[in-house]
Amino acid sequence: MIRFLIKGLLRDRQRSLIPILVVALGTMLTVVLHAWITGIMGESIEFNARFEYGHVSVMTQGFAEKQDQFPNEYALTGVDTILKTLQKHFPDMLWVQRIRFSVLIDVPDSMGETRAQGPAAGMGIDFFTPGSQEPQKLNLLSAIRQGRLPEKEGEILLSDEFCSKIGLKPGDKVTCIANTMLGGMSFVNFTLAGTVSFGSPALDRGFMIADIHDAQYLLDMENAASLVLGFFSGSGYEKELAIEAKKRFETVYPPKPDDPFYPVMLSMNDQPLMSVMLTMSSMMSGIIISVFVFAMALVLWNAGLLGGLRRYGEVGIRLAMGEEKKHIYGSMLAESFFIGLAGSLAGTILGLILAWVLQTKGIDMTSSMKGMTLLMSTNFHARITAPAYYIGFIPGIFSTLLGTALSGIGIYRRQTATLFKEFEA
């Protein structure tokens, strides 16, 4: 029976081709949209990970409790040893050290007297270690507005808006005034290598980026760092991977709740702001995808409904020839299932191919996002995840079946005695 129905669908293209194309198109759009929304939401999370949180972060318990205040008195000491330990136990992850701090930028005049001052937040990253990926991770090269990236020790980057307000240009000397890790006051001269635009008003008002060793010298933090960030290789943030990493970390550093200088690992879900963002991101992507899947389900439901109505005359002839109503109804449902299956399979394959292209090449939206260079990438990518392989079958098969089932109910209302009158009409 099944072979007979499949042969009938293959030979009668008028009955199968258009429905299969409609289902394939709807399924393809569902798969592509799911991958696109997942990619967009994932990239916004990834940018926060690169700039501030990492996929996981290692810091002292004291720093974790007050990290919004940059409490470097609770910085990780002996950070070289900690990095080696992390690289040994997590060889599949990338580990980088960062320093966060607050600083007062003092601009001298030709006589060496203060001409202008301004507060700024600061970050120390690894510019000069061979193979360092920090400038690329933060998209610094494309964020440059004037000048260049630091090429030697003693050079820094400042936000372009901040430099415009106090009259700074690349090559100028500035004095950075900051509290050291030990509570003292530090005065260090730096050269402005370039200015950057972050695309965030809070950062553009005043932000400084220095090499990690210059930041350590400024803050008297030899072989110390505010925190160490970890990134999963080959994928974005995955909650399950982060939980597993925390469990492995606690086997190396068993918890000591009473020691504020003891290292702990936090995932992005453990960070209050990122926890809210991850929850909202998941909810928003789920709502958007659900609405679209529901809309495609309605379209394919109507397609199945119309397909059933177009076969009104065929059903009448089959009834007149003595075929049972139950058999006709069952065969129509079976045909719809095979049409939905074929269309969903074709649409899923096409959708995955298109999603793979969007995942690999992305879409450049530079012209629409001028200035959003550091915190937001201007090249957006889709992301293929496990649900992309089956989500298209939900509207593709079930909606087509539902439409046929509803239209086929009329079979049981037709009376054999009136069939010939219908044919005469």
Task: Characterise the protein shown here.
This protein has 425 residues and is α+β, with helices and mostly antiparallel strands. It has two domains: 2-47 and 276-424, no CATH class; 56-235, no CATH class. 50% of the residues lie in helices and 20% in strands. The chain is built from 15 helices and 14 strands. It has a six-stranded mixed barrel. A two-stranded antiparallel ribbon has the order 2-10. A hairpin with a 5-residue loop joins strand 7 (173-179) and strand 8 (185-196). The mean pLDDT is 82.
Helical content band: 40-55%
Which band does the percent of strand residues land in? Answer: 15-25%
Q: Major sheet, described briefly? A: 6 strands, mixed, barrel
Query: In DSSP terms, counting alpha (H) and pi (I) runs of 4 or more, how many helices?
Result: 15
Widest sheet: strand ordering? 3-4-9-6-8-7
Number of domains: 2
Order of SSEs? HHEHEHEEHHEEHEEHEHEEHEHHHEEHH
The strand count comes to: 14
- Which runs of at least 5 residues are low in confidence (pLDDT < 50)? none
Indicate the radius of gyration in whole angstroms.
31 Å
Helix-and-strand structural type: alpha+beta
Shape field: elongated
- What is the overall pLDDT average? 82
Terminal CA distance: 33 Å
Summarize the structure.
Helices cover 50% and strands 20% of the residues.
